[in-house]
Amino acid sequence: MKEGIVVLGHGSRAAVDEANQFLVEVTEALKALYPESLLESAWMNPRTPRQKLPEAVARLVSQGVKRIIVLPVFLTAGLHLKEDIPEILAELSQKYPGISFTLARPIGFDPRLIDILADRLAEVRG
Amino acid sequence: MKEGIVVLGHGSRAAVDEANQFLVEVTEALKALYPESLLESAWMNPRTPRQKLPEAVARLVSQGVKRIIVLPVFLTAGLHLKEDIPEILAELSQKYPGISFTLARPIGFDPRLIDILADRLAEVRG
Question: Which GO terms label this protein's molecular function in UniProt (chains A, B) (predicted)?
Fold first, then answer.
């Protein structure tokens, strides 16, 4: 049974699409790790022209996926993760009663994140 | 010459302070790595009651710091990093002409971030 993964990021309305491109890169890297899963990117920000969570889910469902994991590319559990995303997932569960939805944890505190931040500091210290 | 580091995150207005507490944990971990620097956390979200960038800088300046690195705990260069933070730093540079300010890069795409996301997926797959 094929598994679907929605790689869900914040996105930006910024004219330069760098903040949106980041999520594309993350999704590509995860596709390489999970070649047997179907992956879609989705953006929360209503002001980005990129695909949103319901569209990503519709695409996965149309490809026969029965189990969908939503992977939030968010540092912390702010309001999107506490309220907006669960609300959208509740609606999608009603719309697609045969599909199971699971929301993963956000990135959160992690020693690997501290390593990356230490590198960012080192870059400007020279 | 003492160096100051402002660990600058987004913050959340969420009633549960988890998204703000995350930045405290990140700052504590960085303090352990840089015991000779002075570190302050700061939050961008105007709706969080936590310390903002100008207050963090004022505290560092009052302790004799001459060089301040602002380390953004943001995944991408969205509008905060492209516009809001540079504007605040320009104002602070005028207010404190003897202090040098340097803005580090955001977290960005990194294989270590992909590792963490793979762990978050593994948690819900069981």
Answer: lyase activity; metal ion binding
